[in-house]
Amino acid sequence: LKPFWFISRHTLQVFPRRPDMAVAAMPLAFVPGILSLSSGWTVVVPQGCRMVPVDYRPEGSGSLAPAGNFGDFVGIMALRCMTSVLRLGKVGPWALGAHSAGGPVIYHCLDMLADMQEPSGSAELLQAAQQVLSEEDFAEFGDAVHALEGVPPRLPVAVFSFEGSLMSCDVDGWAEDWAEQPEPPTGEDWIEEALNDPLSEWTWDMARHCCVSLVARCACDPPRHLASIERWLRLPGSPGFVYVAGKQSKAANKVVFPALREIAVRSCSEERLQIFEIPGSGHNLNHDAPDRVRDMIAKLLGLEPDGS
Questions:
Q1: Using an 8 Å Cβ cutoff, are 283 and 24 in contact?
Q2: Is 299 helix (H, G, I), strand (E, B) or coil?
Q3: In what order do the strands lie in the sheet with 5-6?
Q4: Strands 95-99, 5-6: parallel, antiparallel or unpaired by DSSP?
Q5: 75-116: per-residue pLDDT in tens?
Q6: I need a surface site. Which of 155, 204, 242, 260 has the fewest CB within 10 A?
Q7: Per residue in 163-208, pLDDT tens?
Q8: SS3 content of the chain, % helix, strand, coil (to 5)
């Protein structure tokens, strides 16, 4: 599999595999897109890796913060994701990934992981989280932070964004419409199926809150998510950032690819950014080109691609 474009010819620098890790599967914490479940992405998980679902559920008690703020829909989801990844990092190496609307969740996580590398970062994050999380969510998050015993959290060995929403071009034409509709759009079978899936906790109100948050975050000027990725690329010990898009997503790719390249050049971190364009795929890469995506993940994590 050849990338459409590389800023650098280097492959991802993966962690050295120790003898005691010979049979341990690399955990990949994954945040899916709107109205979706992470189980839809298990098809791209290579041998030697295991999916750790970070799925959506109702926001809990209390009201959400205004869209774009720390405790909005994406912010709450990001804090729940942090609970999962802090636990993973306490045990050993781990990776992080997201698709579509899950992108802003992990971009927020990258900022929090960077914050926690600072001496007072964990304490400040705990204080902020207590103001926005439900009692149950905060108890779990607090336990994960305290388990670190004052040590900065382990960073992931890889971060994958599968067309994770970055800028307005990713949400224009649908997110604002959804946010304003009190009922799900008619004639969209996949939406009805998603809302009726017994394994899913998605509701239409949750989808609307998600859209409001996406619109606010993607509309920031300067671009908020690009700033998070640039900070991540600059962070000492960062594994870098992998952005994966379907070749059929041409309109968005013409905007996103140059924007990512610009921040990598500006941060002098060209070798830490990799961009792949997957032939034969559109936005839903797990459905359109699962074999190609699986092999790419395997290669970047230093695993043997399936069937090789």
A1: no
A2: helix
A3: 5-6, 273-278, 241-246, 159-162, 95-99, 26-31, 49-53
A4: unpaired
A5: 999 999 999 999 999 999 999 999 999 999 999 999 999 999
A6: 204
A7: 999 999 999 989 999 999 999 999 899 999 999 999 999 999 999 9
A8: 45, 10, 40
